[in-house]
Design brief:
234 residues; mainly alpha; globular
Amino acid sequence: MSLSRVMALVVKEIQDLRRNGSILAMLAVAPGMTLLWSKVMNFPPFTAATIGILFAVIMVGTYTPAMMLAEEKEKNTLRVLMLSPATPTEILLGKGLVTLLGVLVATAIIMPISGAQAQNLPLFLLTIIAGTVFVIMLGFIIGLLSPNQMATGYIGMPIYIVLLLFPVLGQEGGNVLSKIAKFIPSNYIGDGVFKALKGAAFSEGLMELGILSGSALLAVILFVLVYKRKEIAG
């Protein structure tokens, strides 16, 4: 794998991203919603930040790579990329790094809006990164299954709803949604972020990091299976 090719692909994706209004709008939604929750609805800082970051990780992390792949397929440029000197791994890594960068930028905007501060920065960043890797792989799967950009919406919508709404609506302990949320990996993004914001010890976040890392590995395996079945590399 060539680092220089990966970085060239990152630059290409950022340039393409600037012309994609749908993805740019998605990047703005999480900070915008955080502003609403924090300043209008008067959510506590930790709560506003946690929900805003959870929204950014899931929606940006899933939607962006799905749209990127679908756009390449729609414009018939994906096969051209696959036939270039860049390997499929380098191409996907470039798209994944740009998506991760988008999530981190959204997070950096969300934090001052919410008024929260990460008391345990290593746990905070690792939770976001592990969670983002998991959802990026789901986004790639959605992109592979979608014939065009519009299709990413209706194909991915059930996944977006499950990953986002169950953890958010299940915040009140003891209800049915909170019990279901325990089986959804994205629930542990919110839990890990909240612990990091509150200043929990790193050891207290190991369960969340372990679940998210394991989920990311399973998502990678699932992606490889879908990728081979679709025969994108031809």
